[in-house]
Amino acid sequence: MRVLLPLSAVTTGALLLATLAGAAPAAADHGFGGSPLVKVSPGDPYARCTIGARSPDSVVYPGTEVEPYLSVDPRDARRVVTVFQQDRWSDGGARGLAAAWSTNGRTFHRSTLPFSRCAPGGANFERASDPWVSTGADGTVYASGEGIDFTRSTRNALLAATSRDGGRTWRNLTTTHVDEQPFFNDKPSITADPVRKGTAYQVWDRLDNDPPGPSSLDGPGYLSLTRDGGRTWSRALRFVRTDAVPNTQTIGHVIVVDRRTGTLHDFYDSLTYSDDLNTVVEAHYAMVTSRDAGRTWSAPVTVARDTSVPEVDPNDPAKLLRAGSTLPSPAVDARTGALYMAYEGSDFSGGRFDSVQLVRSTDGGRTWRAPEAVSPKGVPAFSPSIAVDERGTVALTYYDLRFLKPGDTTTLPTAYQLATWPHGDPRHRTERRISPVFDWLRAPFAGGYFLGDYQGLAAAGKGVRAVLTQTHSGAPHNRTDVYSGSFRTW
């Protein structure tokens, strides 16, 4: 669940795209290639759950699975766990979070994550959101999410659980932090340390609007960690401060670990608002570093400007989309320590629409190169995910609108693309379409047509594995499903 307080800023920013009379010129289609995608979201475990209605205007979309993430066992690339929202609500969160696991990478089986009351043995929250998953070097799978109350209270909490059987069952359900309004915890992610056995890190932003009203926003980054395989977690620690600049929040914290040195790098977006909290006046991506397993952290380093603009249907800007804007996707090359971050930005469209952009650092994050364009010129693109395989090939996945025709306001043809750079060299870039073309406007509506604030990509042996949301036509009770596939990169 993504909370950006000044909602009117989205409306204002939509004017930036009002000059788009039609879709951008179509780019060349490189064909539907690679391993077939397989559905990983069979059935609806929460179909009979009636918990969580907020008001008569609250709409639940049964049978919808959105916002997936995934993890691949570093010992065996065929062992995969995906997580996703199940039965999305229009006004925040879902009935619950679910998981799907596989031991061969082809056949997936369902399990339920215990993060809401709809799940058997679940936490005492009406809804859940923001699924994330990571697998440690010993095979322990760590899952995180957010529990939310809407009718009984304003509680929201960060939750974690572990699996020692590849995602079949979940244990050690832990509330790592809980708050009530005017505080709100948002966008947690979880990272298993690849070199420290039993260690994992959960990071998120904590919005403070106390006292409620303008000129009182603070949104620092918080951290909780486990060093005993998820049995216990530390108290929440503020590790990224925002109080030096009034009305500043962070969002999208994700940690990646340099396997060579054990260094942690946390990436996030920093947003500063006007005094009335209605306009974003400055935005940039930043990174902090820890060389002692999260005990102390460096001062922030600016990675790139956040030039993203509101996500809309370019043929009808009144139709809002909901994808990966403001959320960084980082990765580290395990061989060299080179750092990469993919993100949505409008640098290559003159501020008209978002493309997928990439920045890199070869000196541990001290300095960053200028942005490179990943998605084709003239085509809006969204929700990048990045991974680096074992030979240093950089891979990115993203949605784009290259199949949209000028004047088409009834559908939004969308496809998922995979781009690769062997050894990070853009001169040898390849691209292929890895999904069918589908209509984004069939997705549930939750602050925009919602596929998820993120999708997932992970290194997997001699390639990568992707997970994504895809819509169905003519299926009001099964608007979306989650799919996954593995793809060779060399």
From TrEMBL:
Gene3D superfamilies in the cross-refs: 2.120.10.10
Superkingdom, natural source: Bacteria
InterPro entries: Sialidase_sf
Signal peptide extent: 1-23
Keyword terms, alphabetized: Signal
CDD domains tied to this protein: Sialidase_non-viral
Name of the molecule in the record: Neuraminidase (Sialidase)
